[in-house]
Amino acid sequence: MNTRRIFLLLGMMTFFVFLPLTTHAHTNDSEGFSFIEVNEETIHYELKLDLEEFAEAMSREMNESQLFDTDTVQEFLNARIEVYADGVIVEGVIEQAEIETIQERPVAVMNLTYEMKRKPEKIILDYHMFFDETAPSHANFVTIDMDGVKKQIILTYSSRQLEVGEMSFIQNAKQFLSLGVKHIFTGYDHILFILALLFGAKTIRNILSLVTAFTLAHSITLALATFDLVQLPSRIVESAIALSIIYVALIHLLNLDAKHHPWLAFGFGLIHGFGFAGILSEMQLEGSQMAMSLLSFNLGIELGQLFIVSLAFPLILWIKKSTKKPVKWIIPGISVCILVFGLVWFFQRAF
């Protein structure tokens, strides 16, 4: 056998050995496509994923009817694709879902809308689709259009985040200030604890010492948790907050003339601070702006807290000074309600 025939034979053998690899190379590629458009108060996100791979990741059959089970698909996507508008996470709602055929392969096409109150200055996309489940080699080709400027990036296992824009110092402070105010007004357990504290306050000086102690304590643990220096399981924190409500309400019910001391407010304030920090853990806080974000958020909490105290305490003093018997039962009655809420929350959170 001459040299030419040997090389010909080796070439044919190489061809047949690598033929299966080459014919399956493309079909084994894991690819996705994202087209994102940022508008005044909405973000439109068109996501394209291989249908078979999408079905495998969801551990279910995936046809057109299954794809239109938007609640399940939407929950799946929001758990793996996180969009932050100026640091605040926004959840997508599937407006349309369909199946297309691209290069003879079925592709799931989903159009999501993210609602916002105003146009964001900065968008962050955290993408975790398939990486940790079915396809570490997955890649998503992203095109984002913001303020008329388009940016392309490829998201991979080692590079899962896209950032566009830059949030200003003032916008960051305003946003977290507003978030702090909103958080205290929607944190009903914190409000009831503050009310229970006010029931045991005798003078303006006393209430100032209680509020100061509570503020100082929750500011300490809020900072420790936000900077990830101290972390406690959320179940323990939320259960302890419920217990603080129960304890303070019981003190007042057992002795209507009991006076709350600052150390009590400080001790329970440490626990409530971890509760305040829970919402910040869901946000994209950057190192350069973390201190200002934390300060603004805490200031918002204090403003909301001050507003509650300024409305409630004069009314509580009037009730205590009233000589009418029906009025005298208002505070004990409210204390019983606070105690009941605390008990319900404790059993819900602890068990």
Automatic annotation (TrEMBL):
Reply yes or no: does the keyword Signal apply. yes
Q: Does the keyword Membrane apply?
A: yes
Superkingdom of this protein's organism:
Bacteria
Record's signal peptide: 1-25
**Annotated keywords:** Membrane, Signal, Transmembrane, Transmembrane helix
Where do the TM regions start and end? 176-200, 207-227, 239-256, 263-281, 293-317, 329-347
Pfam (any one): HupE_UreJ_2
Q: What is this protein called?
A: HupE/UreJ family protein
Per the UniProt record, the source organism is: Jeotgalibacillus marinus
